[in-house]
Amino acid sequence: MLRHFLRIEIDNELLTAMAERWRPETHTFHLPEGEMTITLKDVAILTGLPIYGDAIIGSTTKPGGGWGPLIRDRLGFDMPTTTPNQGRGHPPLNAGQVSVPWLVSHIQQEVEINDETPEEQVERYARIYLIGLVGGFLFPDKSNRWIQGIWLPLLTGDWDAIGEKSWGSAVLAGVYRELCTCSRVGAKQAGAAMFIVQLWVWEHLPMFAPLDPRPYRRNDDELNLLQNLPYGVK
Known about the structure:
three-stranded antiparallel β-sheet; mainly alpha; globular; 10 helices; MAIN-like; AminoTfrase-like_pln_mobile
């Protein structure tokens, strides 16, 4: 369901205005009408992310052999640790981070999935896509070029275990933390899933929502298919 949110155009001016009204002491927006904040209920309804289940916890240090062996064992391919193109650009693995451009280009070089594609290969593609979606969209860094390696162990295990974790609470915690960082003097960029802040503003402060929501839709037939998707998609 998260892929539908990739089409939202981020309103940087709106997010900047909200960050300026965020108070780290109370984790609330100070507005003329009073204090308001984003709750777990908002995250669950707007995004559909689960807010119950196991907490998102794990080690923040890379394993003894680095992330390369884990990627090879879980995803089935090797990632070079040196910079391609004769030293220009960034290496695919750098200080516990995985390069998003390299991951995307690697997928594009593979054959397309069809009915005859082995199940193991389909699962491998699904894990790569999930790593990119979670590490690059729900928990992005400020450059949008790197995925933190700490997400790899959480997303390369048992499928059922992945879906039973409380991703919504972790995302909300990340948004709170980033808003606290952005509210400081001198802050210039933001990471985290800031699209949630924008959806929340559109819902609770409708005067800032688009006057005509149709540009964010595709067609009426697709809207009928989206009836069971989160409210934020609509």
